[in-house]
Write a structure and sequence with these properties.
Largest sheet: 6 strands, antiparallel
Radius of gyration: 15 Å
Number of strands: 14
Strand order of the largest sheet: 1-6-2-3-4-5
Number of domains: 1
Structural class: mainly beta
Number of helices: 0
Shape: globular
Helix content: under 10%
Strand content: 35-45%
Order of helices and strands: EEEEEEEEEEEEEE
Length: 154
C-alpha cells in the first residue's frame, strides 16, 4: 500500500532519479529513472524492453504512478565477482564510491551503466548482484515495490 503523499501520476519526463514508475494498466511497464551521463534515463524493469534504457528528459509518451525517492537494496546472497563472471544487463554493481545498474543501450551489443547512488564509502574492489529490490521507506514503514531477479522473466 502507498499513502497518497508517496506518489503522483505523470510522465517519465517529469520524473527525477530515483523514481519508480509503476504501470496503471497492462500496456504500461515498470520503469526506474536513474542517472545517465547526460541526465535522467528510463530503465525498463518489465516487458519486452526489460533492462533497456534511454534518456527520459522531456519524454511524455511513457506514463504511470511516479514514486520518487526510492532506494535500492541488494540481495547479498546473489553476490558474484565481475572478475570471474560476466556482468549482464539487470545486474547491480558496487564499485568505487557508487552503485550502478547495467543496462542495454541503443544497438544490439551496447551495454551501459546507469548510476543509482554516489558518494558511498570508497570500495577497493567490485561486487555485482543478480537480485535486488526497489524499496520505499525504512524499518516498519518499508515497502518493497519491485524485485529484480535476473533469472526471472518478470
Amino acid at each position: 500500500m502507498l499513502s497518497a503523499h508517496e506518489f503522483t501520476v505523470g510522465t517519465i519526463g517529469q520524473a527525477t532519479p530515483l523514481t519508480l514508475v509503476m504501470p496503471r494498466y497492462h500496456g504500461e511497464e515498470s520503469i526506474l529513472i536513474a542517472h545517465a551521463e547526460k541526465g535522467p534515463a528510463a530503465f525498463f524493469l518489465s516487458g519486452g524492453d526489460r533492462f533497456r534504457c534511454f534518456e527520459s528528459t522531456g519524454n511524455d509518451a511513457w506514463r504511470g504512478l511516479l514514486v520518487p525517492d526510492v532506494r535500492i537494496e541488494v540481495d547479498v546472497k546473489s553476490v558474484f565477482s565481475p572478475d570471474y563472471t560476466v556482468v549482464g544487463p539487470g545486474s547491480v554493481t558496487r564499485e568505487n564510491d557508487g552503485l550502478y545498474v547495467v543496462a542495454r543501450g541503443e544497438g544490439i551489443r551496447v551495454v551501459t551503466k546507469l548510476t543509482l547512488e554516489t558518494d558511498l564509502a570508497p570500495a577497493s574492489a567490485t561486487a555485482a548482484f543478480s537480485r535486488w529490490s526497489i524499496v520505499l521507506g525504512e524499518g516498519t514503514h518499508k515497502h518493497v515495490l519491485h524485485e529484480v531477479n535476473m533469472a526471472s522473466p518478470h
